[in-house]
Design goal:
The structure holds two protein chains of two kinds. By secondary structure, chain A is an all-beta fold. Chain A is 0% helix and 50% strand. Classes of the chains: A mainly beta, B mainly beta.
């Protein structure tokens, strides 16, 4: 069955970096667009970034553009989110999610990981 | 401030029918499909409705979605205590070139 498992969260000081991982099983990562979505404590969902199924296109929310990078390793069936220059407002649970479409990127996320908590604090 | 607008709360008694609205604009709901997510606090969101009114396998037919113009609605009939959760609408936004979410609606079953 489809499963997504995130890791890499933790506490980081402002300005530092963290890399999140999302290991996919039950499907081939390169067949689907993939997303990162975050949720600050007590707040709603916020889309962060996505990568196309062929890996050739990446898009980012304005709030993270230039600081975060989404990537994947198809040999490991793993999605990544490299987060640099972290800010207090990046504190959130980060979810990886599979796009329900196989070709175009949409807002339909059919499978989600359990999330990993990132806390940015000095 | 979320791009899509939802009421912050809704409530109903067991067996009732409740609706949750989601308002957007021509660049998102007006030109793209709407999706709904259910999130029990402390857990990951779950896809509830996709492409305006389609239910994934396993979602009861008590849940239904509709869209008209730049607005969409989620209806839950035969309300059950297990439906108590946060509900989010989402759509692709052509201007922002990415998905956008509503602020979420907390549903309480009285």
């Amino acid at each position: 069955q489809v499963q997504l498992v995130e890791s890499g969260g933790g506490v980081a000081q402002p300005g530092r970096s963290l890399r999140l991982s999302c290991v996919a099983s039950g499907f081939t990562l390169s067949n689907y667009p993939m997303h990162w979505v975050r949720q600050a404590p007590g707040r709603g969902l916020e889309w962060v970034a996505d990568i196309s199924n062929d890996g050739g296109n990446e898009y980012y929310a304005d709030s993270v553009k230039g600081r975060f990078t989404i990537s994947r390793d198809t040999s490991k069936n793993t999605l990544y989110l490299q987060m640099n220059s972290l800010r207090a407002e990046d504190t959130a649970v980060y979810f990886c999610a599979r796009d329900g479409a196989t070709v175009v990127v949409t807002a339909s996320f059919d499978f989600w990981g359990q999330g990993t908590l990132v806390t940015v604090s000095s | 401030q979320s791009v899509l607008t939802q009421p912050p709360s809704a409530s109903g008694t067991p067996g009732q029918r409740v609706t949750i609205s989601c308002s957007g604009s021509s660049s998102n709901i007006g030109s793209n499909t709407v999706h709904w997510y259910q999130q029990v606090p402390g857990t990951a969101p779950k896809l509830l409705i996709y492409t305006n009114n389609q239910r994934p396998s396993g979602v009861p037919d008590r849940f239904s979605g509709s869209k008209s113009g730049t607005s969409a609605s989620l209806a839950i009939s035969g309300l059950q205590s297990e439906d108590e959760a946060d509900y989010y609408c989402a759509a692709w936004d052509d201007s922002l070139n990415g998905p956008v979410f509503g602020g979420g609606t907390k549903l309480t079953v009285l």
